[in-house]
Amino acid sequence: MKKMSETFPSGMLDRALLAGREYAGASRIDGPLVYMRKTHPVGYGELVEVLSSDGLRRSGQVLDTSDEAVVVQVFEGTSGLTLPGTSMHFMGEPLTLGVTEAMLGRVMDGLGRSRDGAAIPTGTEERDVNGTPINPTAREYPRDFIQTGISVIDAMTTLIQGQKLPIFSGNGMDHNKLAAQIVRQAKVRGGKSEFAIVFAAMGVKYDVARYFIDSFEQAGVLDDVALFLSLADDPSIERTITPRSALTLAEHLAFDKDKQVLVIMTDMTNYCESLREISTQRGEIPSRKGYPGYLYSNLAELYERSGKIAGRKGSITQLPILTMPNDDISHPIPDLTGYITEGQIVFDRTMSGRGIYPPIAPLPSLSRLMKDGIGEGMTRADHPHVSNQLFASYNHVREVRNLASVIGEEELTGLDQQYLAFGDFFERRFISQAFNDDRTIEQTLDLAWEALSLLPREELQRLTDDELNTHHKG
C-alpha cells in the first residue's frame, strides 16, 4: 500500500490528517462494495469519502469492519474506480443529515441532496440517519384517529397516530395512486397540531416520481411534503439509506417541531432487494428465498422509528408500501413486515381487475390499534359495532358467493340474495370511491349504514337495538 504522501498533495494531506485518516489502494471492488486492508480501527456505519484517481469524490459508509479489512458501500456506485487509484478518507463519524423544517416542499434524493434544482436549506442540526433508540418506557400508547378520507380504511382498518400500518400490494396495482390520495387527504382531527408528510420512494421509475410530484402540486399540498426520491436508475445502494434519511427528518419534525408526521415509504420490496444484493456480494449465507438472515431486524430498525413520546406533542405514523412478489402474502417481505407492524392493508388483484378502487380486501386487512382510537369522542359512538358488523356480513357474502358458484345463483334463498345485494353495494359504493372523493368519517359511517340496511335487522347481531333504531333504514 502506498503512503498517503506519495499520492496526495501536501495541502490535501494536511486536511485529511486533521479530519481523519486516509488510505490509498483498495484490495477489492465488488459491485458497490470496496474493500480496504490494514486500516486503523474503523467504526461500523462510519461515513467515508471515496476518491478516484481523477479526483472525483463519492460518499460511502462502512458496512463491515474487522482487524483484517474494512468493507465500504459506495452510494454513487463504483464505476470508474480502480484498485490502485482508489483512496478512502474515513471521517470518524456516522452518516448524518442536516435537518430543518424548510425541507418541507422540497424534492431530494435518498441522501437528502437537491433534486428540484434549488439549494437545500442549511440544516439547523446534523443528525445520525440511523436514529436514536426511543426508550420503550417513554413511548405513549397511540390513540388518536387520522382521517384518510378513504372509507374502507377509516371504517375498517383505522389509522391511528403513531401506528405503523403497511399496505400489501402487487405489481401493476394502484398503490401509488392510493399513496398520493392519502397524502392529499390525510387530516388530524381536532386540530391539535400541524400535519406534515415525509415521502420516501425507493427504486421507482422516473414517470412514477413525476406522478407523485405533479399530484402533490395539483392538490396544493407540496409545501407540506418532503420527498426523498431514489430512482430506478440510481445506484441501488442508495435505497438502503433513503428511508433512514426520510425518518431522520420525520423525527425532527415530530419531536422538535411538534408536528403530526405521516411517513409513506414505497416500495419496501425494492429496499429489501437491495439488502439481498449487498448480502450476496458479501458472500453471506442466505436465509429464506436468498434474503439475509438479518432482514427482520433491519426492517424493525425502520418500522420501530414510529410512535409517540410521552411529553411530546408530535408523532410519527408510518404507511410502508410493498409489492408482494407473485401476490404471495407468505413471502418473507410481507411475512416479516406483518410481525413487526400493527396490522396491514391488503390489496386484492381480483377486485382491481373488476375496476374497484382502491382494491382493498377487507377480510385479510386489519388494524390492531383501531379499537383504542375509535368510538364516542374520537370518531362516532357506533363506529366499533358498525366495523364489526361489516366484517361479519361481508364474510358471509363470501360464503354465499362460493355456494352460488356451485349450485347457481337462482337456487339461493331470499336471504342469500339479500347478502349478494349487500356485497355488491358494499364493494361498488362503500369500498370503491373516486380518486378525488374525500369522505369524512361521518359520511363513511352513514354509507356503511346504507349498506347494512340492505340486510334484515335480525341479521345484524353485532349492533345494539338503539343503534338499529337510530340508523337502520329498513
UniProtKB/TrEMBL annotation:
UniProt KW Transport keyword: yes
Biological process, per Gene Ontology: proton motive force-driven plasma membrane ATP synthesis
Record domain ATPase F1/V1/A1 complex alpha/beta subunit nucleotide-binding: where: 149-367
Gene Ontology molecular function: any one: proton-transporting ATP synthase activity, rotational mechanism
UniProt keywords, alphabetically: ATP synthesis, Hydrogen ion transport, Ion transport, Transport
UniProt domain ATP synthase A/B type C-terminal: residue ranges: 372-469
Entry annotated with the keyword NAD: no
Domain ATPase F1/V1/A1 complex alpha/beta subunit N-terminal: 27-87
Function noted in UniProt: Produces ATP from ADP in the presence of a proton gradient across the membrane. The V-type beta chain is a regulatory subunit.
Protein's name in the database: V-type ATP synthase beta chain
Species of the source: Parasphaerochaeta coccoides (strain ATCC BAA-1237 / DSM 17374 / SPN1) (Sphaerochaeta coccoides)
Gene assigned in the entry: atpB
